[in-house]
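User: New here, please read:
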Amino acid sequence: MKHYKIKITGRVQGIGLRFSAMQIAYRFEVKGFVQNLKDGSVYIEAEGEEENIDRFLQWCRTGPLGARIANTDFTEGEVKNFKSFDIVRSGSGNNP
């Protein structure tokens, strides 16, 4: 099991990236959350089995149709044993 903190910058808000990330996470059995940040980026914490999380990270590099990913930063972290993958509203306390 691996855990990553992911920050995606570019044209990533207002194009369905959070919802798409949730769909891809469910497909690859990845747990965690995604949220928009005030600086215009998207923040994700994701964890899963190595092969699945690698596929999810690959998707994060391109995002959904309409996204223009400028940069994707991945930082490995401590597994938190998330139970689901959720879209978190900005300002709800799960900031990086």
Q: What stands out?
A: The two ends are 20 Å apart (CA to CA). The longest helix spans residues 17-27.
